[in-house]
Amino acid sequence: MRKALVAGNWKMNGTINDVKELTSKIGLAERTDVDIMVAPSFVHMHSVGEILSGTNILLAGQDCSEFDQGAFTGETCADMLSDLGCTHVIVGHSERRQFFGDDNKRVANKARKAEIEGLCPIVCVGETLEERDSGRTIEVIERQLCAVFKMIQNKFIIAYEPVWAIGTGKSATPEMAQEVHQNIRQYSTVHSHLNGSDLRILYGGSVKPDNADELFSMPDIDGGLIGGASLDSESFLKICCSAAKLIN
User: What is the CB neighbour count within 10 angstroms for residue 46?
Assistant: First the structure.
């Protein structure tokens, strides 16, 4: 049985006071029937980790460098995240691919570096609207996954995030998301070292309390990678409740 996971990607948002308040509210709501994770910006990581210390809320990095420590100004390496208490790190988020040039090879290198430092990579995949309209969704995602599968050997998580649904208020229908998740599970069973039935696959793309139930009722959706809604503790915790109710 795959346990539900809801991860909040806070992106580049919040003052230190905002983040402390948000973290405290989420930390008070820890639960055992769903894994809850937050990914603050690196500058807030230490403060968030201190507040969550002693809870079962997981801590994740939003990204990591493909390099070890060294002369890479502005970068954050995987062992720095591990040192701050992170257990996971997001790699290949569509915003990294779109705005910062993270191609499939770089994403694979980041995933490999993460697992070397004991972090579980959350590998993001997804298609643009143009790619979906031209019928290339599965082709694009398989190419993204193939690069990573060649590099990593340990446990990982996949997050499907249709690029056209991120920050737009649009969301794939539950049936559309399920179709892609099912294909990802089948492809992963054949081409990765993991049994696809054990692989956790999250959906990310404008998940909100009012659509979480429908999305999480799909058999191959194991939780969510939540953006905007994770910045509001009430909304985020409602999504966590939906995941616990429908997935486990």
Answer: 12
> What count of other Cβ atoms lies within 10 Å of the Cβ of residue 70?
8
How many domains are there within the chain? 1
| Distance of alpha carbon 41 from alpha carbon 36, whole angstroms | 17
Q: How far is CA 235 from CA 25, 106, 204, 226, in A?
A: 12, 33, 15, 10
> Is 10 a member of any domain?
no
93 as an active site residue: the answer is yes
Active-site position among 88, 93, 127, 181: 93
Question: What's the pLDDT score for residue 69?
Answer: 94
- Check: CB of residue 141 under 8 Å from CB of residue 160: yes
Q: Establish if 220 belongs to a structural domain.
A: yes
Specify whether 161 is catalytic: yes
What CATH number does the domain containing 141 carry? 3.20.20.70
Domain range spanning residue 107? 86-248
Domain presence at residue 65: no
pLDDT in tens, 158-200: 999 999 887 777 778 999 999 999 999 999 999 988 888 899 9
Q: Which residues in 82-121 are b (16+ Cβ under 10 Å) and which e? A: bebebebbbbbbbbbbeeeebebebbbbbbbbbbebebbb
